[in-house]
């Protein structure tokens, strides 16, 4: 059975491609078995493959999940982002987007304002210069865009169900300089206490589950953040 596997971040750099054509002879093929076969075929990337999760049809897949010839398969490194030309991908309702262009906080806030909501809040995550004694000059983000949008939409639905809140999220990919925004989360609710809770929940869940990766570019070089962790340590299934 022939399958195509999408690769991201440091794993794509190690293997040297953002996609991988793979011929699997074992049928049925499970997600766990695929990782074993890939580790054996690419020993230089075995540790990264072992630390990653398989996504099937844009959902995180347990090891016993079956992969078919029609499955959309991706190997997801631990989550923490483009190419030439403008990237702007959004959900059908326009509330969740991934782009390589500067983010617009005012536009995102306007998308969640409601005449019956007395509180609104923007969280803006920006590139900071110092982390301890390490000086960052820029960050670079990569993303599995279709799955990332789906996970952002899931976060928004959970925020709506738990806090009766409106939510919109934009995430930047590509090079993000100092003080520039990499992510903006807009939330509005009837009252301020739930607005704080909902916005905090959204950024924490985003960092746990959305397949976006961050490369730190600094004076001594560059590295993918969290590349030495297991994906299962950072992603809640």
From TrEMBL:
It comes from the Bacteria. SUPFAM superfamilies: MoaD/ThiS, Molybdopterin synthase subunit MoaE. GO terms for biological process: Mo-molybdopterin cofactor biosynthetic process. Coiled coil: none annotated. InterPro entries: Beta-grasp_dom_sf, MoaE_sf, Mopterin_biosynth_MoaE, Mopterin_synth/thiamin_S_b, ThiS/MoaD-like. This is Molybdopterin converting factor. It comes from Paenibacillus odorifer.
């Amino acid at each position: 059975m022939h399958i195509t596997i999408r690769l991201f971040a440091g794993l794509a750099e190690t293997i040297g491609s953002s996609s991988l054509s793979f011929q699997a002879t074992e049928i049925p093929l499970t997600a766990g078995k695929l990782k074993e076969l890939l580790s054996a075929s690419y020993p230089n990337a075995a540790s990264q493959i072992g630390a990653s999760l398989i996504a099937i049809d844009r959902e995180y897949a347990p090891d016993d999940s079956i992969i078919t010839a029609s499955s959309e398969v991706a190997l997801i490194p631990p989550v923490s982002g483009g190419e030439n030309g403008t990237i702007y991908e959004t959900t059908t309702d326009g509330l969740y987007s991934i782009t390589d262009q500067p983010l617009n906080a005012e536009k995102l806030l306007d998308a969640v304002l409601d005449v019956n909501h007395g509180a609104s809040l923007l969280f803006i995550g920006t590139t900071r210069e110092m982390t301890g004694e390490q000086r960052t000059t820029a960050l670079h983000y990569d993303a599995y865009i279709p799955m990332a949008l789906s996970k952002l939409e899931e976060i928004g639905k959970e925020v709506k169900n738990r806090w009766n809140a409106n939510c919109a999220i934009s995430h930047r990919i590509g090079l993000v300089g100092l003080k520039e925004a990499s992510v903006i989360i807009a939330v509005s609710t009837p009252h301020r206490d739930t607005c704080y809770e909902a916005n905090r929940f959204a950024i924490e869940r985003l960092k746990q589950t959305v397949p976006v990766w961050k490369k730190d570019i600094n004076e001594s070089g560059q590295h993918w953040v969290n590349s030495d962790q297991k994906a299962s340590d950072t992603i809640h299934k």
